[in-house]
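Render this sequence as a predicted structure.
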Amino acid sequence: MHVHLFLVKVRLKGCVAAVLAQLCLSLFSLTLLPSAQATPLTLQSLHQPVPGGVAIVALPSTNRTPPRVTFLQKPVLVVAGQEQRWVAVVGLPLDLPIQTQVLIVTEQQVNSESKSEIKDKRYREQQPTTREIKFEVNDKKYREQRITVSNSRHVNPLADDMTRITRELELQNAAYRQFSPNTPSNILFDPPVKGPLSSPFGLKRFFNGEPRAPHSGLDFAVPTGTPVAAPAAGKVILTGDYFFNGNTVFLDHGQGLITMYCHLSVIDVKVGDTLARGQVLGKVGATGRVTGAHLHWNVSLNDARVDPAIFIGQFKP
């Protein structure tokens, strides 16, 4: 593939915000985003090194076997780049400090001896080498959104709700942490639905004046029953009907690239199914804690939720 290089402990009152901070608390916003023409997609166009963005980092390796890369002690997606080199596709958490960041790159070096020194002509034992690769993270300001909710359980769930929320959170976090060895079929995504965008990624949200988690995905304002398609080939690793997310599907595209689709009216797949790019996984709905039908779409890289708009050419610096 030739691509451009630039590329609980839970206390019922005190910990409610902490638990909610990791969930898809995405009450629907009726204000649509201005329409914009998608930017032509290349691997370079994914290089948006801001909190909640993606860093495309060229790796100094020409080995046939890709190096192992970690960021914040989590494995990172590596794809083939130009001139027989490898590229790391790094997810940057929303709370990442604005400063120089470091990748840890490990690869196996194969050293051979002369035929006179090794009669059986075998290679020496492979010796791993580790190096640090630095890259810069730039600032990005995310706007605020203030929402008034009539049902207080949307903001401060009851004790029984919290038990369920905690259990569901563990399942979803485990799905985001999965790292399968296969390479994604494509990382320049197709939109999962056709329709206008509504709430963008990263909104700083306030419910009834109380701060809650930033918006961890991208919302599409489309009606109930709209088919939702896989933006790349993937395996279904989790489905369920969750307190906040409603009917939800998680797809594993390979090497820590995970996508999530929630508030569905219908789930058309089951855990273990392998989907082709463009295959329908469910239909848009209004399940979970929402005020209207829409699709909430998450993209995660190395267990960091990142802006899905980057992958469909709709990112706004």
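Summary. Helices lie at 16-20, 159-176. The first helix runs from residue 16 to 20.
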